[in-house]
Design brief:
The N and C termini lie far apart (80 Å). A hairpin with a 2-residue loop joins strand 1 and strand 2. Helix content is 67%, strand content 3%. The protein is built from four helices and two strands; from the N terminus they run H-H-H-H-E-E. Helix 1 packs antiparallel against helix 3, helix 1 packs parallel to helix 4 and helix 3 packs antiparallel against helix 4.
């Protein structure tokens, strides 16, 4: 009975580890596709800082047990990025950072549509 309970607990910790790694990976890929100037405009450190922190969080969550302190620190950093930094970056840049332009035409410039000098 006790062995089965421990096996179930180990399975739960394995699933939790995968979820936390996915959270860190999502934050890392999202930060990688954001523009550097959006971080400065949102007053949220800089892009390299967040890339290093989120990459460390991903590596630590992979290497260490979920019950140690380092993966917990990594999860907190990932949550801070997703809950605080990401919405500020979306507000400053006007949409997602995944290469899509939000609602604009492909001929839009920084000050509106480009009409070829007409």
């Amino acid at each position: 009975m006790g062995g089965m309970l421990m096996l179930g607990f180990a399975g739960f910790l394995g699933l939790l580890k995968i979820v936390l790694m996915a959270l860190s990976a999502f934050g890392l890929f999202d930060a990688a596709f954001r523009r550097e100037d959006a971080f400065r405009a949102a007053d949220k450190q800089n892009k390299v800082f967040w890339l290093i922190i989120l990459a460390l969080a991903l590596v630590v969550s992979y290497l260490f047990s979920i019950l140690s302190i380092l993966p917990i620190i990594g999860v907190v950093a990932s949550i801070v990025y997703i809950v605080d930094v990401r919405p500020a970056l979306k507000q400053v840049s006007g949409g997602s950072g995944w290469g899509r332009r939000g609602g604009g035409s492909s001929s839009d410039g920084p000050y509106g549509p480009y009409n070829g000098g007409r």
